[in-house]
Design goal:
two-stranded parallel sheet; seven-stranded parallel β-sheet; binds nicotinamide-adenine-dinucleotide; globular; alpha/beta; binds 2'deoxy-thymidine-5'-diphospho-alpha-D-glucose
């Protein structure tokens, strides 16, 4: 693997993946293509810009002309597609852009791979494509054979992209792999998602909005473990295969919120129960047996360590998230492109 295209690298997981690859694969040439939507933040990539092996291109994965020109210029060996609309709540408010980016954008990238003979297309997907599990059946987990059964416009769009990628593999022989990961946490996560939002609000003594009764369960994985799994898949994963990624780390939302309160030394009276998310998935739980058996992947970061490290990162980098709340992160982007 010599030249890698990372789409959505100005976002949370894509940004962490850019750093992971530059650090662990010093000979790699890495191009990041990102439209810099509200979720894209060039401040996240500040450190990467100093690396001569890194190049940033501002552009939309649905822009076929731009994508094809980029493929022609760069002759990529491998594509890792993180670019997506990723927030379930926003998909309930305004689904259309989810369908456009997550499905049609993926199709443009797959077409470009076919035209330019790219050796590997990796689709970064989610455990949400499997729907949810009951709270009272801890024995049940998602395997790669669990039927697709989506709940939100977001998860339906991600599932559509997965099906399209697998169909391209079968029909055109496109060299596709797919990974379906559980909830990530760590540095650079946009503060509209549960963990960074709670850290930011608790820091300012603001209410912590917990949906419903806070009993919904998510299976949390430290973002670097996800990045390492993707790196392994693009190196050694079998074409046409789906790999689940998760670390057996289920927690009810209220437990996560209380942990953050405790680490920050705040008071539980900040917790405010609010109206539930429509169609709210009850529980996710990934069975990662396949990636462990085939590629030897195991998570390395325990939740207690990862959450402390994450909270410390947000405390040490308050300007990163304050600039999102006050909108300054967008002027930074504008300056870079003037
Ligand atoms: P994010 O919202 O933080 O980042 C998404 C990035 O994609 C942003 O930089 C944004 O500017 C870019 N983008 C959006 N639309 C684009 C377009 N049309 N063209 C080019 N770039 C565009 O998302 P994230 O949490 O980092 O998630 C990354 C991927 O991982 C997504 O595909 C998501 O479905 C998947 N995933 C996320 C999680 C999680 O817990 N966050 C878990 C499993 C899978
Ligand atoms: O499972 C993987 C998915 O995890 C990814 O595919 C998505 O891109 C990612 O956003 C995430 O989806 P969730 O909906 O699980 O993440 P979110 O952080 O939005 O919410 C986590 C849980 O916390 C969920 O049960 C809803 C709840 N929640 C969320 C917010 C933002 C609250 O109780 N209060 C909140 O303010």
């Amino acid at each position: 693997m010599k030249k890698l295209l990372v789409t959505g690298g100005a976002g949370f997981i894509g940004g962490n993946f850019v750093y992971y690859m530059l650090e662990n694969y010093p000979d790699i040439q890495l191009v990041c293509l990102d439209a810099l939507t509200y979720a894209g933040n060039l401040e996240t990539l500040k450190g990467a810009f100093k690396n001569p092996n890194f190049k940033f291109v501002k552009g939309d994965i649905t822009d076929r002309k731009l994508v094809f020109e980029l493929f022609e210029e760069e002759d990529f060996d491998c594509i890792v597609n993180f670019a997506a609309e990723s927030h379930v709540d926003r998909s309930i408010e305004a689904p259309e852009v989810f369908l456009k980016t997550n499905i049609l954008g993926t199709q443009v990238l797959l077409d470009a791979c076919n035209k330019f003979g790219t050796e590997r297309f990796h689709q970064v997907s989610t455990d949400e494509v499997y729907g949810d599990l009951p709270l009272d059946r801890p024995d049940l987990m998602f395997t790669e054979e669990t039927p697709i059964h989506t709940s939100s416009p977001y998860s339906a769009s991600k599932a559509s992209a997965d099906l399209l990628a697998l169909a391209y593999n079968r029909t055109f022989g496109t060299p596709v792999t797919i990974s379906r990961c559980s909830n990530n946490y760590g540095p650079y996560q946009f503060p509209e998602k549960l963990i960074p939002l709670m850290i930011a609000n608790a820091t300012h003594g603001k209410p912590l909005p917990v949906y419903g009764e806070g009993l919904n369960v998510r299976d949390w994985l430290y973002v670097e473990d996800h990045c390492r799994a993707i790196a392994l898949i693009i190196e050694k994963g079998k074409i046409g295969e789906v790999y689940n990624i998760g670390g057996h780390n289920e927690k009810a939302n209220i437990e996560v919120v209380k942990t953050i309160i405790s680490v920050l030394g705040k008071d539980e009276s900040l917790i405010t129960y609010v109206k539930d998310r429509p169609g709210h998935d009850r529980r996710y739980a990934i069975d990662p047996a396949k990636i462990h058996a085939e590629l030897g992947w195991l998570p390395q970061t325990k939740f207690d360590d990862g959450i402390e490290r994450t909270i410390k990162w947000y405390m040490d980098n308050t300007s990163w998230w304050e600039n999102i709340f006050n909108g300054k992160y967008k002027s930074y982007t504008a300056e870079m492109f003037e």
